[in-house]
Write a structure and sequence with these properties.
Largest sheet: 5 strands, antiparallel
Distance between the termini: 21 Å
Oligomer: single chain
Helix content: 10-25%
Order of helices and strands: HEHEEHEE
Number of helices: 3
Number of strands: 5
Radius of gyration: 12 Å
Structural class: alpha+beta
């Protein structure tokens, strides 16, 4: 996606998942809200920036999290907030 490419080109390799907050947000997206994610690996997340810095990555499948980046799923209104680590 455009945001991903722009972030990576700027040296930003991580983002924080943010849902739209609407009642229609899928559960697999809700569980990702606020999680720190990597642009190069859609299978993992960290609970916070400190855990990401320490390499404490967890499997998205363990919490039922979607294994796509924000807005890549059909009708997804989630966004990726750039995070510098």
């Amino acid at each position: 996606t455009y945001n991903r490419n722009r972030n990576i080109a700027s040296g930003i390799t991580h983002y924080q998942w943010s849902t739209s907050g609407l009642s229609t947000v899928r559960e697999s997206h809700k569980v990702m809200h606020g999680k720190i994610c990597k642009w190069d690996d859609v299978t993992v997340y960290a609970d916070n920036i400190k855990d990401a810095e320490d390499g404490k990555w967890k499997s998205r499948s363990m919490i039922g999290g979607v294994e796509k980046h924000p807005s890549e799923d059909y009708n997804c209104n989630c966004t990726a907030k750039p995070v510098i680590i």
